[in-house]
């Protein structure tokens, strides 16, 4: 695609979790998997914001009428998370980290910080809103293709973690609720998918330079805003894999471009009055399993005619993704139905040509008219058809402003309308904050740290980059300082590539290794209780819970020589290779292979 001709504009939002305590209470930022201690059930309703208006996304969510279940732990969940107690003062360590980032990005830090409430009624916040504070504006970051402006740096509380969902309820876990999040929002200055990836990587590297940043899977999330000329901003949630970011941007630009082509093709078309027709009787003999199953459950087969759309609903917007997929996605979210049938995909699913003729006659379809069917409980089916008709109306206008979810293949699917200013209003329980800019101490940038690791510690560029970006960075620096006689490259290899080898070759989970394991390991090395060349074996035993220092503890020179001499006496005619194998098996890691080989050759003469 010619992105310049298409008028591609893109902005990125990055959300980074922080360590320590939660944003408005003293609970730890610990994610847990054990069985929860308690459950709370609630309903949440949309309310008017500061301007007296109800947010469009909140209104849509309330129509789904779900019950929300919250699970928590007695020792790490407090009354703030359950919305039974006012928030405490904002976490000063989290604020300090946000101020450091704002300084790095040359942003204008707010002289007075006001915590706001952002209405969210999907159940992810027990209160029905998320607390957020604008820290700074008007920053900038340089990329290969030019400067990207930073519109906002905010500090907000993370949402609850969803556990499961059914048609009537959602179950959330409260351990994630309230974890401090730094949000960085860029201006729509990104003009290509590749520039989008570079921007996200640079901001991610900058975040990792800060103290108190959580590391690991799920601790950083990217959202991306995409628009093309004559279109509208689309917000895409959950672009977790950075490598997929260019694909997501490219495919979304393609989707919007195809929608604009359809709008142009249908220019001048006006939709006929919306009329839902019951097709249950005329399809009573249809062989479709879905239709017969619906009728058996006393459901309905409802449909409506969509004039002028024949051949359009099956139009591909992205690879394997059609306008009909867009219609179906809207029906699933709004009404909770399994999907829809449309005329461009029939005959199929057991609906034959004779059935199609009956449907077209009943709906009074002309030669260019399409139709939509839904099979479900009557009220749900009606709601689904209304949602599809609303989406069809938007096709004539171009691209609707909406929030979409990033799928694993780079395509996106509908979530909700984009929220507006109506959902914001001041938080009255948290006092205004006047940050002190004189006390901001800037940490070493990660890119400078990588260079220092190369020059001062003699690490290769790849190893320096790997360890600087790893979850073990702080531990690496601690061990290098504590054990100056152990080569930094060996420490870095042990904390990095060796763990990847354990996972790849031995199919073991290196995440089971704690910092205490590594501290013990290097203490044993420094005390010469184990050898460097059996570190992999030690780590494997630590992972499997079989580690016993006595198994690896180094033999004295005299004991080692005595053992090898005995092996030589018992195997006088054995070749050197066989003797080496016997020695290694007998000594079981109590001496390095190099030492054993040298001593074996010396004693054999």
Question: Can you offer a commentary on this structure?
Answer:
There is one protein chain. The protein has 605 residues and is α+β, with helices and mostly antiparallel strands. It folds into 4 domains: 3-265, no CATH class; 277-395, 2-Layer Sandwich (Gyrase A, domain 2); 446-552, no CATH class; 557-604. It is built from 20 helices and 22 strands. Strands 1, 4, 5, 6, 7, 8, 11, 12, 13, 20, 21 and 22 form a 12-stranded mixed β-sheet that branches. The chain has a 4-stranded mixed β-sheet with strand order 2-3-10-9, with no helix packed on it. Helix 10 (446-457) packs across helix 11, helix 18 crosses helix 19 and helix 19 (576-587) crosses helix 20. The longest helix is centred in the middle third of the chain and has 21 residues, at 245-265. The termini are far apart. The model has no long low-confidence stretch (mean pLDDT 91).
Label this structure with key terms.
605 residues, alpha+beta, Gyrase A, domain 2, 4 domains, 20 helices
Topology:
Layout: H1 3-6, E1 9-17, E2 38-42, H2 56-63, E3 67-72, H3 92-104, E4 108-109, E5 115-119, E6 129-137, E7 139-143, E8 146-157, E9 161-165, E10 169-173, E11 180-186, H4 193-207, E12 220-227, E13 234-237, H5 245-265, E14 277-278, H6 289-296, E15 300-306, E16 316-318, E17 321-322, H7 323-335, E18 341-342, H8 353-363, E19 370-376, H9 378-395, E20 402-406, E21 412-417, E22 424-426, H10 446-457, H11 461-469, H12 473-482, H13 488-495, H14 497-506, H15 515-526, H16 535-544, H17 549-552, H18 557-570, H19 576-587, H20 593-604
Parallel strand pairs: 3-10, 13-20
Antiparallel strand pairs: 1-11, 1-12, 2-3, 4-6, 5-6, 5-22, 6-8, 7-8, 8-11, 9-10, 12-13, 14-15, 15-19, 16-17, 18-19, 20-21
Helix pairs in contact: 4-5, 7-9, 10-11, 18-19, 18-20, 19-20
């Amino acid at each position: 695609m010619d992105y310049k001709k298409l008028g591609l504009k893109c902005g990125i939002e990055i959300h980074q979790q922080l360590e320590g305590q939660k944003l408005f209470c003293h609970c730890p930022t610990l994610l847990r998997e054990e069985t929860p201690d308690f459950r709370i059930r609630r309903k949440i309703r949309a309310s008017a914001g500061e301007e007296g208006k109800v947010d469009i996304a909140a209104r849509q969510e309330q129509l789904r009428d779900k019950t929300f279940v919250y699970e928590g732990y007695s020792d790490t969940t407090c009354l703030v998370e359950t919305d039974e107690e006012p928030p405490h003062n904002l976490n000063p360590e989290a604020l300090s980290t946000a101020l450091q980032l704002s300084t790095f990005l040359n942003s204008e830090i707010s002289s007075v910080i006001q915590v706001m409430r952002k209405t969210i009624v999907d159940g992810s916040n027990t209160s029905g809103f998320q607390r957020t504070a604008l820290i700074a504006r008007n920053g900038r970051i340089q990329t290969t293709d030019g400067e990207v402006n930073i519109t906002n740096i905010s500090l907000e509380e993370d949402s609850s973690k969803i556990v499961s969902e059914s048609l009537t309820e959602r179950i959330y876990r409260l351990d994630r609720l309230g974890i401090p999040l730094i949000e960085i929002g860029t201006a729509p200055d990104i003009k290509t998918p590749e520039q989008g990836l570079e921007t996200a990587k640079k901001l991610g590297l900058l975040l990792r330079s800060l103290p108190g940043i959580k590391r690991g899977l799920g601790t950083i999330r990217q959202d991306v805003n995409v628009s093309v000329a004559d279109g509208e901003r689309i917000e895409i949630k959950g672009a977790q894999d950075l490598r997929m970011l260019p694909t997501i941007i490219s495919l979304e630009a393609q989707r919007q471009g195809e929608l604009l082509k359809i709008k142009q093709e249908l220019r001048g078309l006006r939709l006929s009055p919306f009329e839902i027709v019951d097709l249950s009787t005329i399809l009573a003999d249809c062989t479709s399993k879905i239709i017969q199953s619906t009728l058996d459950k006393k459901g309905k087969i409802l449909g409506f005619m969509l004039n002028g759309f024949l051949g359009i609903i099956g139009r591909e917007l992205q690879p394997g993704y059609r306008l009909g997929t867009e219609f179906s996605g809207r029906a699933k979210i709004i009404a909770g139905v399994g999907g829809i049938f449309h005329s461009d995909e029939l005959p199929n699913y057991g609906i034959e040509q004779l059935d199609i003729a009956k449907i077209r006659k009943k709906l009074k379809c002309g030669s260019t008219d399409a139709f939509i069917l839904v099979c479900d409980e009557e009220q749900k089916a009606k709601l689904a058809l209304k949602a599809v008709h609303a989406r069809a109306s938007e096709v004539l206008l171009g691209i609707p402003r909406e929030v979409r979810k990033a799928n694993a293949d780079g395509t996106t699917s509908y979530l909700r309308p984009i929220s507006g200013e109506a959902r914001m209003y001041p938080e009255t329980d948290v006092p205004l904050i006047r940050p002190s800019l004189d006390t901001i101490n800037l940490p070493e940038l990660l890119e400078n740290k990588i260079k220092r690791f190369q020059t001062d510690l003699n690490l290769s560029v790849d190893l320096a980059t790997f360890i600087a970006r790893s979850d073990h960075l702080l531990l690496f620096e601690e061990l290098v300082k504590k054990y100056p006689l152990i080569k930094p490259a060996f420490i870095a290899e042990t904390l990095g590539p060796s763990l990847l080898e354990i996972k790849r070759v031995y199919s073991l989970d290196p995440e089971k290794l704690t910092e205490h394991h590594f501290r013990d390991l290097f203490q044993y090395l420094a005390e010469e209780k184990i050898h460097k060349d059996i570190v992999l074996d030690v780590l494997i035993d630590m992972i499997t819970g079989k580690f016993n220092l006595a198994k690896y503890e180094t033999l004295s020179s005299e004991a080692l020589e005595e053992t090898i001499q005995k092996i030589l006496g018992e195997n006088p005619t054995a070749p050197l290779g066989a003797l080496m194998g016997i020695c290694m098996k007998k000594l079981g890691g109590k001496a390095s292979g190099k030492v054993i080989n040298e001593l074996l050759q010396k004693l054999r003469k």
